[in-house]
C-alpha cells in the first residue's frame, strides 16, 4: 500500500481519528542488535551473546533492545506517511510507551499507525500518532504508544 501523502495541516486533519496504515515487515538481525549495542554501550548478554541467550535466557535466543525497536520507527513511519512541503519535523515526545513483548532475533516487525489527534498551534502542526509495533506471527505487539511529532510546513 502506498504511503498517505500529506502536505498541509488541512490534509492531516482529514485523517484525524483514522488509521494511517501499516508498514512493510522489517527483519531484526543479530548484526543490527550488535551495532545498536556498540552505539549505546548496552552489551547485556540477552542481546549480544546468542550461545548464552539460548542456554540461560528466558526467550531461547537473543532479543532486540527495546530502544532498538523504537529507533526503527522513522524508517517504518515513512512507509506509512509521506509528509511533503516541510521546512522541518521534530520528534516532540512519546506518551504511554509500553514494551509488551520481546522481539527475538530474526523476527519481523511492522508499524501500524492511527492519527489520534492533530492540532494547528499557530502554524506548527502537532500530530499525535498511536503506534503499535507488531511482531509477525505473534498476538502480542512489541510495543504500543503515542508518538508526538511537530511539523513545520512551508
From TrEMBL:
Stretches that traverse the bilayer: none
Residues annotated as domain MaoC-like: 12-132
Source superkingdom: Bacteria
Protein name: Acyl dehydratase
CDD domains cross-referenced by the UniProt entry: NodN
InterPro entries: HotDog_dom_sf (IPR029069), MaoC-like_dom (IPR002539), NodN-like (IPR039375)
